[in-house]
Amino acid sequence: DRTDDEKFAFYVGSLAGLDLQEITASSLPSHARLRSTAHLVREARNPEGLLGAIQDYFQVPVNIKEFVGQWIALERCDQTQLGNNDAAMLLGKGAILGETVLDRQHKFQLII
């Protein structure tokens, strides 16, 4: 109610490394960014924090599906090749068959 004397947004934004000018210039309302500060300041962000921030802002039920698989194409130099003695190319040490690798660590799916 006292926008000319409002210091709380500055303090909360500072915890997350957010500049007050950046917060006010964003198309996302400032209260939405500031409410999720607790999630943003964690070094290791968890799915529950993301779900909470999205549910709180949009007021809709949200679920998350973790470890969604995706195929990653390997560069030619990263593919296993006969005659190469690099440690990653040795059987039992990291040899990979093919041009792609299934990855389940770096992708998730939001279900809204």
The counted number of beta strands is 4
> What structural class do the secondary elements suggest?
alpha+beta
Mean pLDDT across all residues, rounded? 82
Task: Work out the radius of gyration.
Answer: 22 Å
List keywords for this structure.
112 residues; alpha+beta; 2 domains; two-stranded antiparallel sheet; 5 helices; 32% helix; elongated
Structure description:
It is a single chain. It contains 5 helices and 4 strands; from the N terminus they run H-H-H-H-H-E-E-E-E. With 112 residues, the protein is α+β, with helices and mostly antiparallel strands. The chain has 2 domains: 3-59, no CATH class; 70-111, no CATH class. The strands form 2 sheets. It has a two-stranded antiparallel ribbon with strand order 1-4. It is elongated. The mean pLDDT is 82.
Short overview:
Helices cover 32% and strands 12% of the residues. It has 112 residues and is α+β, with helices and mostly antiparallel strands. It folds into two domains: 3-59, no CATH class; 70-111, no CATH class.
SSE order and pairing:
Blueprint: H1 8-15, H2 20-25, H3 30-35, H4 37-40, H5 47-58, E1 63-65, E2 70-73, E3 100-103, E4 109-111
Antiparallel strand pairs: 1-4, 2-3
